Amino acid sequence: LALALALALALGMGSHGKALRVLVAGGVGGKLDAIVSRVQAVVKKSGPFDLLLCVGTFDSKKEGEESGAAKFIRSGNKSPIPTYFIGCDGGESCDELLALLEASPESNIKYLGRCGVTTILGLKVAYYDDLAASQGEDGGEVDAMLDSATSMEGDIDLLLTNYWPSGVLTHVGKRDDRLARVAGNRTNAKLAQVLRPRYHFSAMEGKFHARLPYANPDLGTGSHVTRFIGLGDVGNGSNEKFVHALGLKPASDMPREAFLSRPADTTPSPYEATSTGQDGGREKGQKR
Fold first, then answer.
1. Do 203 and 160 touch, CB atoms closer than 8 A?
2. Model confidence over 207-255: pLDDT tens digits?
3. Which of 36, 54, 2, 79 is nearest to 247 (CA)?
4. 215 - beta bridge partners?
C-alpha cells in the first residue's frame, strides 16, 4: 500500500500545491468495523487521509436482524475520516439506513445519492448507484449527466459505479484468467466514455484489477488518461485488495502539462471498441 500511495501521490501532484489523500474501498457489505479498522491501520502506517469513498454493496442484512451498518451507527461508532458511499439497493433496509444516517451526522458517513456530480474537498466526483437504479427508474438522471458532460470536459476527477463497465478489458493484451467471467454494464461504460474521468472505481466482481491507463479521445482540448480500478470486497478471504490509496489534486488545479501527461503503457480507449460491438464481458446489473 505504501508503494502504491507513493506512486499515486507522484501522479496526483503538480507544482500548485499539496495533493489530497484519498482512500477508496470495495464492497463493505455491512462490515463497517472491518473497514474502520483497516483505515485506522493505514493512517497509523502512512499518515492521515482526507477522505474515504466506498463502491459496491455498502450494507448487508440477514432476515430478522439489524443490518451491519445500522448496528455500527446505533452503537455510537463513527468513521475516523469523512466517508461517502454508493451501493444502496433501494429496498426497505436501504431506506432505514439512510434515515438513520440523516439522524446521525456524527457518524461521519454520508450517502452520495443515486446519480449525480458533486464536489468533495475540491475534487469533482461523479457517481451512479446502479444497485439503487436497478430497483426502479432513475428518472432520467443518467441522461441528464450525459447531456451535461460537454460542460464538464476534463473536470471529473473520480467516477464511482458499483458494477464494472462493459468492455473495460479491451486493449489490455493478455487476459488475466481471474477476470475471465467479469461482467459488464453498458450504462457505466457510456458514463466513463462521455465523462472521461481521471479515475473510475467499481466493485461487485470481488476482484482487484488496476487496468493500464487508457487515453480518452481528443475532443479539441487535449487527450488525458483514465485509470480504471476494480476492488475486492472488504474482508474477503481471497486476498483481493479492497482498499486503494490515492494522492490527488483536483484537475482544475493541475498544470495543463501534468493533466495531459501520458504514461508509456497507455492504451487506446476500450470504449471506442465497445461501441462497435466488442463487449469484453457479459452484461450484468443492466438497467438501460
1. no
2. 999 999 999 998 888 899 999 999 999 999 999 999 999 999 999 899 9
3. 2
4. 225, 268
